[in-house]
Structures are given as structure tokens and as C-alpha cells.
Amino acid sequence: MTARKSTMSDVARHANVSLKTVSRVVNSEPHVSAEIRQRVHDSINALGFRRNEAAARLARGSGMLTIGLIMENISNEFYSHLAKAVESAAAEHDALVVFGSYTERVERERLLVEAMSARGVDSLIVVPSSADHGWLAEHPGLRTVFVDRAPLGVPDPDVVVIDNLTGGRMATEHLLARGHRRIALLSDQREVSAVHERATGYRQALGSHLDESLVVHGVFDPWRACHEAARLLGGDDPPTAFFATNNRAAVGVLMAGRDLPRRPALVGFDDFALAEVFSPGVSVIRYDFAKLARSAVDLLLSGADAGRLIKVPVELVARGSGELSPADASLRDPA
Q: Which residues have a Cβ under 8 Å from the Cβ of 17 and sit 6 or more positions away?
């Protein structure tokens, strides 16, 4: 049975104040003493009260709350999961969500923002491209929260990110603990903050074992990742393990190794469908999509000061591919 959501009336009873006082605190209205305001906030936290932003808007005659979600490419599994999670989180506030993909075209990202703003979208959740976003200053009334990456050119942005640095370090340390020293990195744009942080974690963990010839950036799809992985594996001193900073790169490594007598070890960042179907299963760095989305929606609707950063924690899921030893992954038969 689903627990009943707390109401403002519940908060009023808990704080021993009037319903009007709670409404004033929730709506950041004046004429409430600091002591009463703190008491109401304590009751809100104790009861887990969450304001129905859509109902508040309707009461003001402002219409239904609409959130715009702008992503790189919804066909990518990461973005489709994100869209579903944001829609679920927004539904808790009775809000509508509209989607748009800019598919790596910077000019389309700006076009989507301007089109949504012109059509009455109240707030935005944006997975920003690597371009400068200073032009958002032209839309001062548009509330924006950034997800997965920090934007360039935006002062004091609200950002919800995955703990990418820890994830990159965790994946690499996991491979090092199995005896690997020749660990390759496959990633996409190094200019993107999330990619940079994952690669930084990789570099920190490898330390003196880092070999720049095994570092590949600019990999956007599985076929390019497959080509680069095959190139590295065909070298004179091939890697025995890979850290793939996204699900597309991980699939590319699997493609490159499918016809080899021994597959390289692999840890990927981002879980993906069928990761458990492979033999061995694909070890990944995983995180909670629901927490990522809910944190973004809550920041968007909280109305508090800007400049907040939320990091969603990660975990390593060991399924077998990241647990292969260098001997298991070696492409050369013992003499």
C-alpha cells in the first residue's frame, strides 16, 4: 500500500502554526519571523512534504507546469533512460515533460531552447553540449538545471552530475587489482566535463603505468570504438584490459574481441541492456537514474539560490569481464 503524501495541513499541525503561515513559508512570502520559518522548515523535513508545484501554478492561474528536457541523442540508451526517469520524477509534481535531441549539432541545441521558451515551457533540464552556453543569458526568466555535464559560460549553474571522477578511478583500480598494467581508455569528447573527469580518474589510478598510446578520445559510436580497439589489440604490445567511458565504447570493445581466442578484460561506464547476456557478463560502473532525474527536477522546482552541485554516487557491478586476469586476456599463447 502506498503511503499517503504529506500535505500543508499536516505541516501546519506538526509545526503548530496556521495553514496560511505554511503557505507563506513555502511560497517565500514576507511577514514570517525567522523562528516560525525555521519551525515550518523543520516540520517540512520531518514529514517529507513536497510542494505540488503544478497545483500552485494552477491556483495562480498560470496553467500546467511544463518542463523541457534537451539531450544529445534520445536513441542512445543513456538518454532514453534519463528521459523516462525525468518523466517519472516530474509526474510527482503533476508536471508535463517535452523532449528534444540536438544529436551533436550545437546550433540545434540553441534552437531547441529558443523554441521551447517561445512555446511557454517554464523550466529546462539540459544535458549541455561542449559549446559555450553564455547565450542562455538572453533567457533570464527560463529556469535551467544541467544534468551529466557542467556547462561552459554559465555563472553559478545548478548541476546534477554522476560522480565521474570516482567512477573512472574505481574502474581502473578494479582492473589494476586483477594484475593489469596495459589498460586502454576509449572515450568520446575530452572537452565534455563528464568525459574529462572519468579520464582523470583513470589517469590518477594508473599513475606511472599510464601509456598515452593506449588513450583514445573522440569515439562516438560502437563501430568507431570497435575499429580503435582492434587497432590497439593488433599492436606489438597490446592492452590486456579496457576502460570504456560510455556504453557505446563498451559495445565496440566487445565487437572487437568477439573473434579473438582470448578477450581483453573490460569495465564500462554506464550499464546497458544485454550486459548480463554476454559470457562473461560486462562489468560496469552503475548509478541510480531515478536519483539523477529526481535531483534535477527537485532543483528545478525548489526556487532556491543558484550555483548548487549534486553528485550522484556510483557503484561497480562485477559480472566477469572486469575480473579476467592478464593471462586470461592475453592474445599470445604461452610458449
A: 36, 39, 40
The answer to whether the CB of 145 falls within 8 A of the CB of 304 is no
CB 45 within 8 A of CB 10: no
Q: How far apart are CA 162 and CA 302, in angstroms?
A: 20
Amino acid at 150: A
Question: Whose CA is closest to 278, among 258, 256, 252?
Answer: 258
How many Cα atoms occupy the beta-carbon half-sphere of 160 within 13 Å?
23
Per-residue CA distances from 27 to 22, 51, 300, 302, 303 (Å): 8, 10, 15, 10, 9
H or E stretch covering 145: strand 143-147
Taking the C-alpha atoms of residue 210 and residue 204, their distance in angstroms, rounded to an integer, is 9
- Return the biggest CA–CA distance within the chain: 84
Phi, psi at 71, each rounded to 5°: -130, 170
Q: What is the amino acid identity at position 191? A: E
Question: Alpha-carbon distance 335 to 333, whole Å?
Answer: 6
Question: What residue spans of the chain are helical by DSSP H?
Answer: 8-15, 19-26, 34-47, 53-59, 77-91, 106-118, 164-177, 193-206, 222-233, 247-257, 289-302, 326-329
| C-alpha to C-alpha distance for 185 and 214, rounded to whole angstroms | 6
CB 98, CB 120: distance < 8 Å:
no
Is the dihedral angle over the CA atoms 195, 200, 201, 205 positive or is it negative?
Answer: positive
- Residues lower than pLDDT 50 in the chain: 1-2, 54-55, 58-62, 332-335
Q: Is 48 helix (H, G, I), strand (E, B) or coil?
A: coil
DSSP run (H or E) holding 160: strand 158-162
Find the angle CA(14)-CA(18)-CA(19) to the nearest 5 degrees: 90
CB 245 within 8 A of CB 232: no
Q: Cell digits for 43?
A: 516540520
Residue 304 pLDDT: 60
The pLDDT assigned to 50 comes to 64
Q: What is the pLDDT of residues 151-167, one digit of tens each?
A: 989 888 999 999 999 99
CB atoms under 10 Å from CB of 303, counted, come to 12
Tell me how far apart the terminal alpha carbons of the chain are, to the nearest angstrom: 64
